[in-house]
């Protein structure tokens, strides 16, 4: 029947022949069936040896068959019709899960998923971050295009890559305990202050495009981050200030890219010479002014 997965269709998606987890037989380890208009995949309950399953771009709203896959490592169920997630018995070593582009309204307790390293929940209807307290291996989290208004529930997690873009977040104070952060995307929110991003010594990339940062003094919260190399403040009121570009470069001399533009060595030198010039530059400028002043004085021949 239309939308119901059968053995023949499942066989088309099987690939990667290898040794089973117990090591007793050769089996197919991967299943890839994207864009097949599938609604019912209960037949997969018998495919207990699968380690990687890709079911994106279907019409699936039930993943209970995963309960029978104890060795599953990666699951991609993006672009389906799921309203709940992780509604199955936890596989022993499930590491990467993609539930983006679904209709999930609420996060659930994931305490049983100790091995989870990557969780993508972009393009859903989630209003609050919760249930991740015991995911001590989680290194990548995606929650863009949801309905979040605050950053909570991420305390002391080892997250390195965090995407919270296209939400309604106003403050970033909830990131204080995430000391492993390397890449953070907070674009398209309502953030006015960068307070909460200080002391993230591993942070390399920060995207704050289309927010409400208005004052240059907000950069002070991130000026001491030793590894920060890429910063994006496009579409913020701060760009309306006349000396924004050189002032921002001067406060962040170690960055290599600002607002999607490469920062040149010449611009860094110009920023330093303008904001805090060394003595030789001050002397040269003073000499130039004195010479120009003398030239402009009226000349008189001595008697």
From TrEMBL:
The keyword Electron transport does not apply. Gene3D superfamilies: Ribonuclease Inhibitor. InterPro entries: Leu-rich_rpt, LRR_dom_sf, SDS22/Internalin_LRR. Keywords: Leucine-rich repeat, Repeat. This is LRGUK protein. It comes from Falcunculus frontatus (Eastern shriketit).
